[in-house]
Backbone:
């Protein structure tokens, strides 16, 4: 960049560096904008990761389907070729005909799977092109609008407002940039858990078992425990015992204490008053399972646990949060004067300001040695430039914008900050 600046100065006519000033300013502006873009792109990990993980899942699913079907067909062919009895010839032909039909069905399924893969590949490509377009200054405003809509769609999906999210994505024309189909996959499981149905969640765990095992997830174990509790609640004690032997015993090596606690409910029953076991029969256990599933689902697709909207807002609130924000003297203009923002900023640390800044209530500009603060007789402080402007417009009179009190400019006292 320094070389570019030097070349611009040398190219000025008659060695006049002033003619190169616009070029220098443009170069610095471009550098600052590119630096800002680079920082923004660091937050777009999820945008690319989610469709990629979805594509990988589809490919694995299609591969397992093909492998399973081909293995079954080859085994059937081997059995048919090994039969030399002429009486079984008709049976052999019938079996081969069924194999042909099965292969045709497999071909159709693979073609459908291929179409799904192509759609997901196109989605990955569209998102990469979207990220690449941010370097185009003419499209930067459109890119920012699309990012805002993406953040809002993400928030609506996480809050289970699926229809609203879909409508917003269609209106903003960002269907390929939104993960609506991914969240709709989770919707079925979440709704079933809220209706106290474990089957869809267990199927989801079976489909993603290798990856869940790799991440040492306990979601399937928690679901199995809840299914055991429901058998105890229904007084199906023998079924609960058989269930524990089949589905809970494999987890004993790593989760013995939790398993023992749940199995003990056979003795305490569902109407127990013992707090240790009573809590296992509470409806809140289902809410816990919903949250567990959401966390595992997000981890599986490389998503953040928190909505992107919360993350962006907390990033800004971190710079604004000070002890004064939680006092009665907090200005109404401060976002943290609102309860919603205070709750969002609750886990955040206070902003560390090494140098305090005084901002004029009237002009919203800093008060420093070039624009020193002046104190009114009532104790309120404003900047010199703002009060001088007010004095010129009102024949030397100053009206306090907070209290309405009127005084002369000559009554003001200069404040000194140490």
Residues:
């Amino acid at each position: 960049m320094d070389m570019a600046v030097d070349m611009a100065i040398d190219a000025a006519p008659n060695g006049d560096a002033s003619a190169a000033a616009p070029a220098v300013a443009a170069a610095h502006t471009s550098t600052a904008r590119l630096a800002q873009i680079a920082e923004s792109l660091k937050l777009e990990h999820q945008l690319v990761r989610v469709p990629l993980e979805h594509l990988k899942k589809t490919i694995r699913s299609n591969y397992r389907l093909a492998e399973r079907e081909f293995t079954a067909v080859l085994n059937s062919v081997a059995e048919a070729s090994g039969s030399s009895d002429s009486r079984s010839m008709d049976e052999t032909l019938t079996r081969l005909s069924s194999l042909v039909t099965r292969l045709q069905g497999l071909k159709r399924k693979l073609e459908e799977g291929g179409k799904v893969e192509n759609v997901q590949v196109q989605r990955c490509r569209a998102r990469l092109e979207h990220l690449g377009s941010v370097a185009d200054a003419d499209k930067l405003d459109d890119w920012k609008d699309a990012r805002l809509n993406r953040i809002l769609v993400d928030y609506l999906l996480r809050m289970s407002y699926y229809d609203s999210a879909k409508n917003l994505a269609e209106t903003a024309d960002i269907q390929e940039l939104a993960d609506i189909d991914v969240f709709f996959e989770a919707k079925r499981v979440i709704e079933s858990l809220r209706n106290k149905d474990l089957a869809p969640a267990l199927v989801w765990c079976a489909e993603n078992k290798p990856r869940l095992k790799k991440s040492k997830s306990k979601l399937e174990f928690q679901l199995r425990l809840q299914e055991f509790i429901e058998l105890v609640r229904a007084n199906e004690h023998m079924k609960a015992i058989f269930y524990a032997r089949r589905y809970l015993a494999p987890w004993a090596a790593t989760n013995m204490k939790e398993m023992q606690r749940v199995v003990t409910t056979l003795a305490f029953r569902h109407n127990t008053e013992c707090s240790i076991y009573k809590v296992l029969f509470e409806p809140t256990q289902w809410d816990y399972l919903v949250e567990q599933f959401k966390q595992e689902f997000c981890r599986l697709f490389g998503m953040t646990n928190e909505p992107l909207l919360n993350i962006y807002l907390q990033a800004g609130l971190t710079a604004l949060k000070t002890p004064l924000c939680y006092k009665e003297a907090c200005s109404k203009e401060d976002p943290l004067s609102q309860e919603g923002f205070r709750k969002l900023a609750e886990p955040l640390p206070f902003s560390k300001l090494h140098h305090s800044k005084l901002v004029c209530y009237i002009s919203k500009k800093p008060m420093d040695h070039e624009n020193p603060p002046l104190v009114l007789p009532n104790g309120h402080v404003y900047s010199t430039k703002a009060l001088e402007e007010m004095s010129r417009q009102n024949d030397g009179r100053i009206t306090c914008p907070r209290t309405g009190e009127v005084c002369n400019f000559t009554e003001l006292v200069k404040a000194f900050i140490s």
